[in-house]
Amino acid sequence: MRPIRPRLALLGAALLAAAPLGLAVPATAAPDTTATPTVEEQRLDKAAPQEILRRSGFDDAAPDFARALAGVRSPAEAERVIAREGGHLWKRAVDRVQGRGPAGGDLSRDDDRPLYWARLGMTRALGQWQPGFPLTDARRAALLDTLERTSRGEDSIDLPAGKAGQRVKRIVVTGFDPFQLDADVRRSNPSGAAALALDGTTIRTDSGPARVETAVFPVRWADFADGTVERALLPAFRPGPRRVDAFLTVSQGRVGRFDVERTNGAWRGGYPDNANVSRTETVPIPAGVPTQRPQPQWTTTTLPYEKIVAANTGPVPVYDHTEVTEIPAGGSTPVVRPDGPTPGSTARAGGGGDYLSNEIAYRATLLRDAVGLKAPGGHLHTPVLQFGPGNTDPATGQVTDPDFVHDREAITAQVRSILTVVAATA
Fold first, then answer.
1. Is the pTM of this model over 0.85?
2. What is the mean pLDDT of residues 367-380?
3. CATH number assigned to the domain with residue range 169-425, chosen from the 4 options 3.40.630.20, 3.30.230.10, 2.60.40.2470, 1.10.3660.10
4. Any signal peptide, and if so, which residues (predicted)?
């Protein structure tokens, strides 16, 4: 959940009390256009995001959402409407990527960006909404949290229980929003595209079918500190008939390579997130979730990295990445270790670095260990998705090009192939 926005409802409890018994207070007609958009929402009005929305047909998502809010008459109804509309946006994005229904425009179907920008239009509409009943900042923040979770697939991870003799493996995959948008607002994130392409699909392996459920997470430190990862994954990690058989957190990493990250570190390095917020600290574990005490400095993948590296999963090389940065036991200076951490050391970067890629891997594997989940799980870094030659300048470039689309589709295909190796060992 994001920090509470400093927005106050314009109608107080006195108005609600003055309404006749049994009658709902009508919603106000006009949004509060003076409400300050978030840093992410402010990028929405740039030309590239608007073109992405228009060329995908997702430019109607925010206006339709605002109209739905205008008819809301109570906080309970607001929760229902927002959950419904958020879930619809997620399903719509999944359907578009997977080829169901009309494309809605000429933007390639594999694109993850319409979901990101449409969601921001909806969060901005929610921030500007003036209901005809009292709405505290805390309640608005809770409604925003509902919108975020439902529109990211975080609340719809629905793994099958399976039947006797018809065992279906269960796999969870996560991706991320686009990021570094101040440098180039056109950016896509292949991990998010892969998550949309894989959600609800079945992978066939020699050892049986595997059902895949996915979610896409924000590139924001605060949401991770508030427990969005653990809240989404814990139902699937707990013991029971729908417990995962494998999980794969995915993010965009290095140019020209996939990396299976061997070790994850308990350190935030401070690089600004999508809200332009920095955090440099030990990864904070939210209250109320299973964890290990004392908090470990390192967690380790249980993915079959040797088999993944050896398999012919696609055109891009895949590496077992073992490097970390640590402060050795009794030391004070960070040291790069090519073969993993030494005993008693303090983390300063995992194999996946010290940003949110490393952090989601750390959180997921720490949760795995805390609940005693014995399953393959860990982090995969995809290659960096780049625009084609002649389209690299964000000031003059186009929002898409053939190389850009081809590479994103190829990355998604190879993620699916790598996941097949994981599923076969689950």
1. yes
2. 98
3. 3.40.630.20
4. 1-29
